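look at this record:
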Amino acid sequence: MAKPEPAKKPLSSENTVNIDAPLESWPDLGVDWPDLNAPDIKSDNNETTLQPAVKIPDKKIISSQQDKTNSASYVSENVSGYHYKVKIIGLPSHDHTWLTRFNSVSTLYTLRRKRANMAQIHRRIRDDSISLTTILQTSGYYDAEVQSEMTPIPEKHKITIAFIVHAGPLYRFSEVQLTGLDKQDTPQLGLQHIYPLHQDDPVDQGKIIAANQQLEKQLGHLGFPFAKISPPDIIVDHKTLSGSMTMNIDTGQQQRFGQIILKENSRPIDVQHFNEIARFHPGKVYDSQLIDDLRRAVIQTSLVSTIQLTPVPDPNHPNITDIVVSTEKAPLHTIAGTIGYGNGEGVRSDVSWTHRNMVKPEGAVTFSGILGTRDQGVGAALRQGNKGARDRILSSSLSVLHTKRRAYDARTATLSASFERETNIIWQKKWIWSIGGQFIASDEKDNAYSANGAGRRQYLIAALPGELGYDSSDNLLNPTRGIRLSAHASPEISFLHKTVPYVRTQIDASGYQPLGENIVLAGRVRLGSIVGSSSSDLAPSRRYYVGGGGSVRGFSYQAIGPLNANRQPLGGSSMAEFSIETRFRFGDLGIVPFLDAGNLYTSTLPRFSSLRLGTGIGLRYYTSFGPMRVDLGTPLHRRAGENRIGVYVSLGQAF
């Protein structure tokens, strides 16, 4: 039922121009009224060239009731146009998206930075009045009226435009009737209850469209990928201020997964590997969410740039749906490089070349090099993704590295391999684990003991590192709630210098608690212990050290703990670290005051005594892939030789 457009309510004001009044009642501007249906006359630079001599009132405000005989008091002057500002009065308060929706279609808003003459402004006001009325009516306010007023400020060449909204009552559904869902419904499916709109909900066209999209998505989730939803039949009754909707749904037969079929051009990943990645198998009830999950997982491999997964009915089995896969191959080679500086690490540059599918499937081979004032080395690594099952990673690497630190100078060759269940931003896991093995041959100078004639020593080390982790946080790079726990243990044997068996252990725990919409309190604890040997019998590179951007901020790397007479770090057999920070966010920026504490001990277990404190403030810039952080820290109770300020830059939060 359509209702004719209601008559506009006249606005009586002595201070404004009523845009909706007939043109004859407007004050004389000194020119003939233009044809409002004619297009603007454009110049070569796309600016309007129609700029007549306009008579501007010597008062700040034009009155909508002023008679033409007062035009003698107007002063004529040439102006290049007006700037304006827009305000809307009377919008319904329950929906905070009104202005966003209006600005997305508003001509006034789109062209707000350009001056305009009176004819242009008048036309824009007319267009925006229609747009605002349409927004209100499609949102359920079917009796909505919009009027406009304009208040010029001549001496500033500015205009204030006001839209006055008379929203009227909100129409609600008196009836929402769906037909067809009962044909395939069961108590387990509950199809009759999945539609999100009901009686007494607003007759809002945007919400109706969203509800139909949700219905289609939910039907796909429950096994009906070929459901057909007819356009809704909506009747609006202006007498009862209500609406009714009728819609028919043909669900078809519930489907089960069939085979994954690859088109001829889809060869970066074969069918067998697709079946390893997919979280469904033939015979399982069809679920569109599992299709979306497979799409994200395949994109995560970086082997394809685009992928299309299309459900296709099996012609021989009416309740079986095959998945046809079409992909486009992504570039397989990547060259990457970084350069940076860190306290205790000096200048360092890294470069790498990767072939992401050299060993099929998903066998990425990377060759890398490091050149810096304190680090030089080369390496090669093989990383096989989704090895045998989803998110299982098999990695192996060989590297040769020369490392110079305050505590030691080491020339090390490392051969390692690991098998792990990985977490990632596509599918964050609650439980992760890893197991592996390492063989390390190292020639090291212990700077802390070399003054006593220790010189360089050779070490051959075999290790079996393992880790188990639990993560209930809500975001991998920017957690705002939840906890993280991890335990690491590495049984090791050191040969050559002397045979020393020992176990390196470490426990990490962190928690995140929101204190408001944009405030998060975060805390961290780290405890480490080496059991079976004193730290002086270990290779210096296998001891614990404390201090730095991932440890106690404000101190440089290896700066906390026992030192020799020359203030060189001795390393330790145990450690304890604590951190607390408050994360304030303001849009894309954030401020993070923090307090860190920690110390290093020569005993097997940490003593939690004589903790060194570092404090400071961090800056955060939040991007689509995670926050970038810059932390500035300083030691409390600073000692001679310690830095006054430490600067730390990285991607992601500190913990």
